[in-house]
Every structure is written in C-alpha cells, then in structure tokens.
Amino acid sequence: MQLTLDGTYVDRMMILRVVLTMVLVCSTRSSSENVNLDMKEILESAKEIRFMEWLREVRRRIHEYPELGFEEVKTSQLIRSELDSLGVQYTWPVATTGVVATIGSGDHPCFALRADMDALPIQELVEWEHKSKNEGKMHACGHDAHTTMVLGAARLLHERRHKLKGTVKLVFQPAEEGKGGAYHVLREGALEKVQGILGLHVSPDFPTGTIASRPGPMLAASGRFIATFRPNYGHLLFPHPVLAASMAISLLQQAIHRETDPSQPKVLTVGFVESNQVGSLTPDLVKFGGTFRCFSSELQSYIRRRIKEVTEIQAAVHGCSGTIDFMEDRLIPYPPTMNDKGLYEHAKRVGEGMLGKENVKFSPMIMAAEDFGFYSQKMAASFFLIGIQNETAKSGTQTHSPYFVIDEEVLPIGAAFHAAVALSYFHTQLPSLLINTTNFHVS
Ligand SMILES: [Zn+2]
Ligand SMILES: [Zn+2]
C-alpha cells in the first residue's frame, strides 16, 4: 500500500492525524478544565458570605452543646431541623441518635459522606463567646466541624441534585470516640447499598486550605486491655503481684517488637499501673492497662493473643493468678482504616482541581484509630485529613486538648470537598464500584 501513495496523499494523511490529535488534546483538556471549573464553582458557592455565616452559626450551636457518644439527642435534633429546612429526606434514628439523609435519584450507584457527632468528656478551657455550655464536655476532636461540613455538603448537593447520576447518603453517626458508632450504623443495615464512602477529619498538623491522605493503610487498628494480678496465698513462694506485673510489662514490649515483622508499625502502651497498697506491705491486687495499635487485622489478633498469654504465664511463674479484660463489650476494638486506591486517587484529583496540586499532601500512616475503619471493611473508603492550622485563628493545638481550637475557614472547604467528591464520583469508572459487598457481615 505505501508504495502506491504519492506525496500529496501522505501529506493529507499527516495533516488529518495532526488535526485529530489536536481535537483529542483539546477535548481532554477542556473536559478536565470543566471538571476543575465545577470544583472551583462549588468552593466559591460554599465561601459566599451567607453560606459561610450559616456554616459558622451551625458549628457554633453544635459546639455550645457537646454530647457524648449515643447521647447526641440535641445534636441529632439540630441536624434534622437543618435537613427539614433544606427539604432533604432522612432516616432516623439510626444506631440510637444517628441520622442518614438521602439526596439524588435513589438508584445505584450509591456514595456516602460521613460525619461523626459526638464530643469528649473534657472541660473546655478556651475562653470565647461560644464556649461549651455542657459542664465537663467539649467538642475537642472537631466533630462539630465534621457535622457542619456534611450539612454544608447536603445543601450544596441538594442545590445541584439534577446533576446527580446516583444517590448520595449523608451519614451523621454517633459515638466515634471509643464506642464504635460506625459498627452500629453498619449493623443496622443503613448503608447496605453504598459502594463508596468519604470521611474527613480536621487536623492541626496541616495548614487551612490543604488536605492530606494516602492510599492503603491510613489509620491504625486499636484495642484496649486491663491486666489484673492477685497472689496465690497457698503458694510456697512469697508471691508478689507487683513483680509479676512488672515482668509482664517488660515482656510484652519484647514480645510485640521481637516476635513480629520489624517493618510493620505497631505499638503497645501501658498507660497506668496501680495497686491497692502503699508502703512496705505486699498488695493483694495489682492492675495495669493500656492500648495497642497496628495496621493489619492479623497483627491485631496476634498482639491480642500474646497480651493474654504473657499476662497469664507471668502471673503463674510468680505464684499469682492473672486475668485480662479487653473490654470489648464496652469499647469495641477498631479495625485499621484502609484507603481504597481508586477512591483515594479520585478524591485526590478532586482536591487538586479545587485547592491546587500543591495543597493536596501525602500523609504518613497515623497511629490514631478511627471507627471509620469499619466502613473500609465493607466498601471502598477514603479518609482525608483537612488542615485547620492557622496562626491568626490560634488553631495549632492538637485534638483531645481542652485548648483545642478550630479555624472556621475550614468549614466551606470541607463542605465543598465533600460535595465535589460525591458529585463527580458518579462520572468516574472506579474499579471499587465493581466490588461485591454481599459477603460482608458485621458480627
Ligand atoms: Zn477524637
Ligand atoms: Zn475525631
């Protein structure tokens, strides 16, 4: 064929190829520019003065009346009343106080945005106009901001509901702090048809205007324990439970670090040791307890088993009895939070389009635990940190501190990011959409 072509024909082919390439490049560029324009338009809407004032006012109302896990009655009421004003439908109660709102077609695919609602048993020491009015309780982990941002996303999405090619579930869940609210939301079947979920957490480690995350393991699995030692008085030795407990504490450190893969991060922390005696008398009761963290369910099970074995064996060696309580009936252990690669990449692209590439950071793995890990066991999940560090707002203090402060400029950014990830989710072909979730169950 080539031999029969004259020069003119070859030139025409080349011109055609160049034109086709230009059309392709231009259409790709314009579609990605459109996506970025959409992202920016959503952020601009959220930053409009009246929208921002509404966000700030909602957050402050929640902040003034913090409630502990499964007691978020007033917070839940506030959420429902805001959803009623917006005209957004919801299911309530979910897992005691939770609310799950629905926006969109009602059909597949289904994507969820998650906010936690609970506060901490901490007395707020920040002196400001909207200080906690509930003695000994404080939103010191930013869940007041999380709830506000998802309410903001509800408003942004409701205004753009004609653009939704699927269904968005807005999950206002109770009891993230230690009580596993996410586990109970899933157990009630509230998210049966959801394929992907996004969660945000405010972070004083990153400046306002930035977000951060990573694919794969993001947050640790966690468990708690209390070991109790009692002397066996019939024993020929002089059993000393303090010695038994001390040996067990040392050996636990050795067991965790010498018996497991050194490239796998993990930690076991003993946070307290106590006995029922002071002075020179031998106590008849010694307790110690703490927490353990790692990034895989297998390692979590291994550490749990070794805590029990080391405690019981060291107690026996020292003529004592040793028992272990993992408190799992009250404080459910959390699985690791694993970010789905496809969903992480999708949210990252949305963040880059909205905030600029330089403002989407790569996060290290973090030893904090979150009940968001339960969602990541069931569906494609992605958890992002959202920066609140701002010298002017004096918001550099870590969470769980009585001096914790939020830079409220984060509210429109979080609302817009939530909404944009959900809106654009339906236009992507993520492999995670194909994940079969029917075999999953929460026990
Ligand atoms: Zn917290
Ligand atoms: Zn938190």
UniProtKB/TrEMBL annotation:
Pfam families reported for this sequence: Peptidase_M20
GO cellular component: endoplasmic reticulum
Alphabetized Gene3D superfamilies for the sequence: 3.30.70.360, Zn peptidases
Domain of life: Eukaryota
A GO molecular function held by the record: IAA-Ala conjugate hydrolase activity
UniProt entry tagged with the keyword Heme: no
Binding site for Mn(2+): 141, 143, 177, 201, 400
InterPro entries hit by this protein: Amidohydrolase (IPR017439), Bact_exopeptidase_dim_dom (IPR036264), ILR1-like_Hyd (IPR044757), Peptidase_M20 (IPR002933)
Biological process, per Gene Ontology: auxin metabolic process
Keywords: Hydrolase, Manganese, Metal-binding, Signal
Required cofactor(s): Mn(2+)
Cofactor notes: The Mn(2+) ion enhances activity.
Entry similarity comment: Belongs to the peptidase M20 family.
Protein name: Peptidase M20 dimerisation domain-containing protein
